[in-house]
Amino acid sequence: MPLWSEVDSFGGHSLVCKRASGRTVRHHHLNGVIARSLASAGVPVSKEPSGLSRSDGKLPDGLTLIPWRADRSLIWDVTVSCTTSYSYLEASSREAGAAAELSASNKVGKYAGLSSQGECVPTAVESHGPVNRDALQFLSELGRRLAETTGDVRASTFLFQRISVVVRRFNSVLLHDGFVDDDRQK
Questions:
Q1: pLDDT tens digits for 26-52?
Q2: Helices 21-40 and 155-177 meet at what angle, rounded to 10?
Q3: Rounded to whole angstroms, how far apart are CA atoms 168 and 160?
Q4: Which of 8, 73, 40 minimizes the C-alpha distance to 159?
Q5: Rounded CA gap, 146 and 144, in Å?
Q6: Alpha-carbon distances, residue 47 vs 33, 83, 84, 157 (angstroms)
Q7: Quick one: which of 14, 61, 132, 180 could link to 174 by a disulfide (CB 3.0–4.6 Å)?
Q8: Global pTM?
Q9: Sheet holding 45-47, edge to edge
Q10: What is the DSSP letter of 117?
C-alpha cells in the first residue's frame, strides 16, 4: 500500500493528494457549517479551542461552550475520507460508509485524552457518500435542535444538504485543480 498515488487519466489523485489546497478549504467550510448550525440552534461554540490540545499539540475543530448532552460539552473534529484512497479502498469496496467509520475510529484514538473534558465526536464524511454512525447521530440531534429553535421542520434536511453541497463543491475544486492547463505552462 503506497503512501502516494499516481496521477492517472481519471483525475482521482487530486482527491487524495495531501498537498491539494482544496482539502484544507473543504475542511474549514465543513467545520464552519457545523459551528454555524450549532450557533443557530442556540449552542455557543468555540472553534479550535486553545485549552484543548492533544499530546501532539493539535486542536479539535470545536467545542460547545454549554453542555451538549449529559452535562458534558461536545468536542468535534471534522475529517473527510476519500473512499478511493488506497488506505480505504478495500473496506469501501465491501461496505458503504466503511471509510468514514475507519477514519472516525482513528480520530477516537487521537482524542481519547480529551474525553474527560467533554464528549468527543469525530465527524467523518466520505468524499463520495455517507458519514460515520456517531456523526450521523450527532448531526441528526443537531438537526432536531435546529428545527425546534427555528420552527422549520426541514432544518435537519437542510443541514445534511449543506454538508453534502460543501463536500461535492470542493470535490469539484479538487478535481479541477488536478488537471493541468497547457496555457499556464508556457
A1: 889 999 999 999 999 999 999 988 877
A2: 170
A3: 12
A4: 40
A5: 5
A6: 12, 27, 30, 24
A7: 14
A8: 0.81
A9: 45-47, 62-64, 74-81, 119-126
A10: T
Position 146, amino acid: L
Grid cell in block for residue 95: 461496505
C-alpha cell at 85: 484512497
What would the pLDDT profile of 45-93 be if each residue is shown by its tens digit?
999 888 776 767 778 899 999 999 889 999 999 988 877 776 777 777 7
Under the banding of pLDDT at 50, 70 and 90, the label for residue 2 is very low
Contacts of 77 (CB under 8 A, 6+ apart): 60, 61, 107, 111, 120, 121, 122, 123
Closest to 135 measured CA to CA, from 91, 88, 100: 100
Identify the CA nearest to 126 among candidates 159, 167, 162, 185. 167
Q: Mean of the per-residue pLDDT values for the chain?
A: 81
CA 153 to chain centre: 24
Most confident of 13-17, 68-72, 150-154, 164-168: 150-154
